[in-house]
Design brief:
Blueprint lengths: L31 H12 L32 E2 L4 H15 L1 H7 L10 H9 L2 E2 L4 H16 L1 H11 L3 H5 L3 H16 L4 H15 L2 H19 L12 H11 L4 H11 L1 H11 L5 E5 L7 H10 L4 E3 L6 E4 L3 H6 L8 E3 L2 H10 L6 E4 L6 H9 L5 E6 L2 H13 L6 E5 L2 H7 L4 E7 L14 H4 L2 H19 L2 E11 L8 H10 L3 E3 L17 E3 L1 H4 L4 E8 L3
Parallel strand pairs: 1-2, 7-8, 7-10, 8-9, 10-11
Antiparallel strand pairs: 3-5, 3-6, 4-5, 11-14, 12-14, 13-14
The protein binds S-adenosylmethionine.
């Protein structure tokens, strides 16, 4: 994932979350159908620059409204509500991923920072610029429509004449319906205004017939909602049937629901999904390396009228539930005075417990959330070697380190850790392996992640985690510390990886983490676990292992 300096401080270290509008990611699973359709259109010789809005999902044919002669107009359209136009296009970008960029622009991501450029080239018109309220709505609606996709699609499909009609729906029309359904069912917005606005968007962006269709379906929805007769699945039948129904009600993939019911029981699984669907909470870390203390941060937040509270767990952290846009606009992040970092990630750094003068290797360091926090705690004495296989993400780390004024203690290395460990025999006081993982602990922040993950990923990740743990252990000094962490809540990526490692490496033993984090985060085996359902933080795990002195 590439990034620019302006993105640096938006990094949530646990989840590599970017709070800006960059969405560069592989296409989503459920949309292979859509992508296939698009690719088949390309194969059939259709113009690469044909507006994406005209592609049908299943057939890959141009819709009835497509006219080669239709020219894009660059006039500002005042009829359409700008935030809905932006939402529709942003949802298309997220859902179609690289294929979207390719279709719009043969250079791919050329206009990544210019959202209005995307709107203009996708819809054929410009809207007035978004104000703060529009921006908040875009964030809410896009996040919500992605999170609730399975649930919304169930309702939309139930109100279409046939499954075929739903499956053949063109992507832009589907996004407009998802927006309307989300606004009516989940945001409880005034229904007839929502109908009118989305009908207008469909008419202007597509064609009058599309507007009529949106009108018919949304009006049906309004009636059903008013009569409290929404077609919701009933949780009954065998385990599989129950999991399917819960997956629709809570809008998660069926495999995740089945796994969680088995691991946690239905009650906790439902609580976890409720957390994943709730508005994400953020915390902000004051950058003491720039002599910017939490007291300074609190003073600024008070001045900016951003409601906040102090973290009970970490000295430099402040929690906020609203006001992120204000913080962004005030340039606090751009100036490197603070960064967005979940407390669950901050607690992993507490477990590493970096001390001035120490040598540390951060084995999977990019984009650098934990590296920067560790570096700030070295107080300019010591060194952190920050390794990552991903050059783009490592570049973000480097730029952030300069911005945060901790570059003096960070040395970046672009390498595959396994390869690097084979060819280097340097030993460090502390080794952090923040391993690549499923990210199942950060689904409330990464709205789209649930749809990108597959059950098979966990198996692949487990092998990689074992290999990386073996490699990381080679850097630990006798008596030194190895911290293994993930932002997953899955025992197979967490406790089970550590237990398997200890079987392979009798030279390590568990150092219980109760000296470093509050007791309610410590498991029976002495590991750290932040549980979204219990702690209202992102889910994450860490084990502190010590190498015996020979
Ligand atoms: C969970 S992220 C790390 C997040 C980071 N510690 C932070 O706090 O911002 C995992 C990282 O592992 C890196 N990675 C994956 N496989 C790797 C390998 N074989 N060698 C080195 N880095 C690897 C990925 O590029 C990714 O940046």
């Amino acid at each position: 994932m590439e990034g620019t300096l302006s993105q640096l401080s938006f990094i949530s270290s646990n989840s590599s979350l970017f709070l800006n509008t960059q969405f560069e990611k592989p296409p989503l699973m459920a949309d292979t159908l859509v992508l296939r359709a698009i690719k088949s259109t390309e194969r059939n010789g259709a113009s690469k620059t044909k507006p994406l809005k005209y592609i049908r999902r299943r057939t890959g044919q141009a819709s009835e409204g497509f006219h080669e002669s239709r020219k894009r107009v660059s006039k500002v359209n005042l009829e359409v509500s700008p935030h809905r136009a932006v939402c529709a296009v942003r949802l298309m970008r997220i859902e179609l991923g690289g294929a979207f960029a390719d279709l719009l622009n043969e250079k791919g991501k050329g206009s990544g920072s210019n959202e209005m450029g995307y709107v203009e080239r996708t819809l054929g018109f410009r809207t007035r610029p978004l104000d703060d309220r529009d921006l908040r709505l875009v964030t809410d609606i896009v996040g919500g429509a992605i999170r609730w996709r399975r649930f919304l699609d169930h309702l939309i499909a139930s109100l279409c004449h046939s499954q075929k009609m739903f499956e053949g729906m063109e992507p832009l029309l589907l996004q407009i319906l998802r927006i309307g359904f989300y606004e009516i069912v989940k945001l409880d917005m005034p229904p007839y205004a929502v109908v009118d606005e989305n009908v207008r968007l469909a008419k202007v962006a597509l064609r009058p017939g599309a507007g009529n269709m949106v009108n018919g379906i949304l009006r049906k929805l309004v009636l059903l909602k008013e009569n409290n007769t929404l077609p919701l699945p009933v949780v009954e039948g065998d385990d599989r049937a129950k999991a399917r129904a819960l997956a629709t009600i809570y809008s998660h993939p069926v495999w995740m629901v089945r796994r969680w019911i088995k691991q946690l029981g239905q009650d906790v699984a439902e609580k976890l999904m409720t957390w994943n669907n709730s508005d994400p909470h953020f915390s902000i870390r004051a950058n003491i390396a720039k002599d910017f203390t939490r007291a300074d941060l609190v003073e600024l937040l008070t001045m900016l009228k951003v409601p906040h509270e102090l973290s009970p767990h970490l000295d430099n952290f402040v929690r906020i539930s609203t006001g992120m846009q204000i913080i962004i606009q005030a340039s606090l992040l751009k100036q490197g005075l603070c960064s967005v970092q979940d407390e669950s990630a901050g607690l992993v750094v507490s477990i590493v417990d970096p001390q001035p003068g120490e040598t540390i290797i951060d084995c999977c360091a990019a984009p650098g959330g934990k590296t920067l926090f560790m570096a700030s705690r070295l107080l300019s004495q010591g060194v952190i070697s920050a390794i990552d296989i991903n050059k783009g993400r490592l570049r973000i780390l480097k730029e952030s380190a300069i911005l945060h004024e901790v570059d003096g203690v960070i040395n970046t290395i672009h390498a595959d850790l396994r390869e690097f460990a084979r060819n280097n025999s340097v030993k460090y006081d502390k080794v952090l392996l923040d391993a690549p993982c499923s990210g199942l602990g950060v689904l409330s922040k990464r709205a789209d992640l649930r749809w990108n993950r597959k059950l098979e990923d966990i198996e692949l990740l487990k092998n990689l985690q074992d290999e990386l743990l073996d490699a990381a252990s080679m850097f630990v000094k006798p008596g030194g510390v190895l911290v293994y962490s993930t932002c997953s809540i899955d025992p197979e990526e967490n406790e089970e990886r550590v237990e398997a490692f200890l079987e392979r490496h009798s030279e390590f033993h568990i150092d219980p983490v109760d000296r470093y984090v509050p007791h309610n985060f410590v498991t029976m085996r002495g590991f750290y676990f932040s549980n979204p359902v219990v702690h209202s933080l992102d889910g994450s795990f860490a084990a502190r292992l010590v190498a015996i002195r020979i």
